[in-house]
Amino acid sequence: MNFIWNDGGRSTSGFVGLAGDCVTRAIAIATGLNYRDVYNSLGKAANKTVRNGVACSVGDDFLRQHGWNVEPGGDLPFQMDHLPRGVVVTHLEKRDSRRGGHFCCVIDHEIHDTWNPMDDGDYVIVGYWIHSGAKTGDDKLSRAPLRPRDDKQELTQNEFEKILKRLRALDTTASNHASTEGEKRNALRMMQSLMLRHNLSRDDITDDDNVENVSYTRMACPVNGRRACTWEKSLAAYVCDEMFPMVQWYYGRKQNRTLFWFYGPVDDVQNCIALFRELLLTIATAAQLQYGGYSRGSGASYAEGYVRGMPKQLSEPAHEMSADHIFSQSALIHARTLAVHQAALDWLRLECGISLVTTRGSGRGQHDPEAANRGKRHGSKHDLSSVAGRKRITHSNR
């Protein structure tokens, strides 16, 4: 099933920070109701905040009251063939484990969520909800219920960023001594109107680097074999450290394949995993053509050298900036990156139920220095100038 990142309208409803809100999110997406309204209704029913999750029974009662019917899932694997078409709210749990669960909205066999449960391969369907107006048959087809349109939910993250930029531009005009009194009044009036319409506060527009406003996800890239090659791990580290420093990675095994996971800010993760896949194919193909393989022997040495030789991301020219200003900007970027890393780790634990541990593996026994040096020469010629990677803090919008 295809995956579409969707937070159900949480960010555009003015919510910030991390939350284990899968029940609220899935219901908001499926019903088309405003996220804040669903959030408040579930909180009132549970008699507590639903920021860090809510009992499945509370979500069940809400859906039942709004005309949705539950069907047993039979603990079947979370796959397209086991769900009807249309709008479906699925209740998932990990196989052989009943510690917590996950609510996920599937629309016409496309997953709408902040991460893709199918990547795990361990989730089974406990049950799923369909609207009472949707008819199902043995062919697993149903029509989507008529859902009310919610403008806040339809607002994309990119459009939300455009609104923030517009508000910051108005804020600059309102506080600029060169602006006339009329310009200041108009700017303030437009700011107030936009903030009320989109449920934003001044903190949202004055703190451009507020980590609490970042939306997170994780995505998996499968590779062949039960063991990750040294050069594949080095490549994952290279892509994250040099090109997308806001993104972090880890790997694990699922049956007969290895999965590389990337997690962090949504756009960065999507771009990072696309580049990782492209480089994987490029390096593996080059090693295969020249040495007949890439997982062992000279082919693996060539691939390792290729990654080591790839160009490091250079900083932009400092021009006339003072050494103190350069140091201050670098420190600010580093602090921002560390804050995002910690927030992403917290999100991974809270939303996906994953806590990472660090392990050390043994090195590869065979090594071909000549093949490694050849790979290093080839890797140094790899052109990454077109990749939109490392983010820098600028002040052009202030």
SSE topology string: EHHHEEEEEHHHHEHEEHHHH
Give, in spatial order, the strands making up the sheet with the most strands. 1-5-4-3-6-2
Strand content: 15-25%
- What structural category characterises the helix and strand content? alpha+beta
How many distinct domains?
3
Number of E-state strands = 9
Domain DUF7168: 224-318
Region (Disordered): 359-398
Domain DUF2786: 162-202
Biased composition (Basic residues): 389-398
Write up this protein.
This is DUF2786 domain-containing protein. InterPro entries: DUF2786, DUF7168. It holds the Pfam family DUF2786. The chain is of the alpha+beta class and 398 residues long. The chain folds into three domains: 152 residues, no CATH class; 42 residues; 166 residues, no CATH class. 43% of the residues lie in helices and 17% in strands. The chain contains twelve helices and nine strands. The strands form two sheets. It has a six-stranded mixed β-sheet with strand order 1-5-4-3-6-2, with helices on one face. Strands 7-9-8 form a three-stranded antiparallel β-sheet. A hairpin with a 2-residue loop joins strand 4 and strand 5.
